[in-house]
Batch of 2 targets.
Target 1
Amino acid sequence: MDRIVSLSPTPRQFTEGLTACLGGMLDELYEALMEQLAADPYLFRIPGDEHGAAGFMDTWTRTLQQQTRVPSAHAR
């Protein structure tokens, strides 16, 4: 990590370098999770939520979007 930071003077270059380093590992993680999901479709269900992880992510994303909205000039 120190080497990546020292070779990457801008945040964008750092991010691109970090992404290149993590890409293979994240691909393998994705494949492992998909295999587990195929073996047991209920594995990633959240207790009490019939929508499972997808419903959780929808709710989480919507909440973040609502919290980061900039008030318009008309709302002031």
Note: The longest helix spans residues 11-39.
Target 2
Amino acid sequence: MASYAKDPRCIAMAKALVPLLRRSCPENASGFGGSYQVNLDDEEAVGLGGVELIRAAMRKAARQLDWKVETIGWIGTRFGTMVAVRDTREVPSEHRTVVDAAMYERMNAAMARVSSEPPEVPVQRGSVALMTQEFRAAVAEA
């Protein structure tokens, strides 16, 4: 597998992603518990360099925040291309309550979206729809 670490597109994308990943962490959790997912059209992902380059940029950005990283990337899902990164570090006990509460809130919001009847529930902080919009804007600026 090719390394994208020195690819200028990867470097620029990672630079744009750092503040987005930082913001994905729950407030008052000292940077723990972050995760970020984008759902792009397959053609859009290819235009940005492909799923592997996007994953590499997410890993690079997450490592700059000292995250222990887990990424996924799939092209051709029913949602298009899905790429995600997650911080898998053990959360210190002093931040566990905050991280758990944020995870519970995300799960409740996801369940509300899945079970809601149209019209859709509004886009909220931490939702994949909002993260995808932020990602597009950040990459366009970079």
Note: Residues 93-115 form the longest helix (23 residues).
